[in-house]
Amino acid sequence: MTQQDKDARLNRFLSANDQQLFPQEDIAIYLSCSTHTLQRMRCIGGGIPYAKIGRSVVYKKADVLAFQESQTVLNTAQYAS
Questions:
Q1: Radius of gyration for the alpha carbons in the chain, expressed in angstroms and rounded
Q2: Which SS3 state, helix, strand or coil, does residue 53 take?
Q3: CA triplet 49, 51, 57: central angle to 5 degrees?
């Protein structure tokens, strides 16, 4: 996938409404992680809520944004608790 393709997917995600569904590839681009990381979060729990449509995994934009917000920390001391 070219950088231009990634930019197009990112722009589509950012301009979408909160109820829009996106494939894991788009979410990985937005969160700057791999699809393997998303898969691991699905297996161990504690990740982003998702739906399976057939064999495809999709994420709702609102759920992705809520997950991202929940990961916000003020300082490294918060990791100790």
A1: 14
A2: strand
A3: 105
Q: Which of 28, 8, 14 is nearest to 61 (CA)?
A: 14
Strand order in the sheet with 21-23: 21-23, 56-60, 51-53
Burial of 54 (0-12, 13-18, 19+ CB in 10 A): exposed
CATH class of 3-69: mainly alpha
Q: How far apart are CA 81 and CA 74, in angstroms?
A: 13
What are 46-67's pLDDT values in tens digits?
A: 899 999 999 999 999 999 999 9
- Where do the structural domains in the chain lie, given as residue ranges? 3-69
CA neighbours closer than 13 Å in the CB half-sphere of residue 42: 14
Are the C-beta atoms of 57 and 21 separated by less than 8 Å?
no
